[in-house]
Structure prediction request, 231 residues.
Amino acid sequence: QPVLTQSSSASASLGSSVKFTCTLSSGHRSYIIAWHQQQPGKAPRFLMKVEGSGRYSKGSGLPDRFSGSSSGADRYLTISNLQSEDEADYYCEMWDSYTRSWVFGGGTKLTVL
Amino acid sequence: EVQLVESGGGLVKPGGTLRLSCAASGFTFSSDGMSWVRQTPGKGLEWVSYISNDGKYIYYADSVKGRFTISRANAKNSLYLQMDSLRAEDTAVYYCARIEYQLLTSDWGQGTLVTVSS
Prediction:
């Protein structure tokens, strides 16, 4: 069963940058993942997909402050110029063709100071 | 604009049944796979079930296999989840989700709460 590992929490100051990491388990290092944002009390929202090559494609309307990248088994989501509305939980997701199942990371809770 | 609107949640006793529906609009429903994803209050996301655009491929999480049945009616732009033999641990908000061509979630509904309790 594949695993996506995320830190449980992060914090950063208003106007600064933060970088989230999603680490794919062994055997899945080349997989594409998706990042989703869930603001308090709301449904998740798709942000972007990030490929193993580092290429990323964002959802419609997502500001340029959001970007993606990749290194080995790690997939990143970077938010620059943090705003108060960025305070949310961030989840990564992958599809595993071997088990024919979807896997979500445990999520990272972002606090904007 | 893509819209996914779930309905059918509520309070049900252990061992009971419930049927969730998801009304889709703003995209060609018959072209895309769909999933159900749930979230226990205060916890993370858990994938529940998937159905391909034509209903040919259906997958379930082990936690619901044999108890839940996913289906769709493309003529009605609707997705369903029949939930039988419900347990307390099935208590969660259930989200309807659109799956794009790389088999990742591209859109989410607003969710419907299912509470299993005596």
Notes: Chain B touches chain A at residues 35, 37, 44-47, 50, 59, 61, 95, 102-111 (CB under 8 Å). The CA atoms of residues 40 and 92 of chain B lie 4 Å apart. Chain B is about 0% helix and 55% strand.
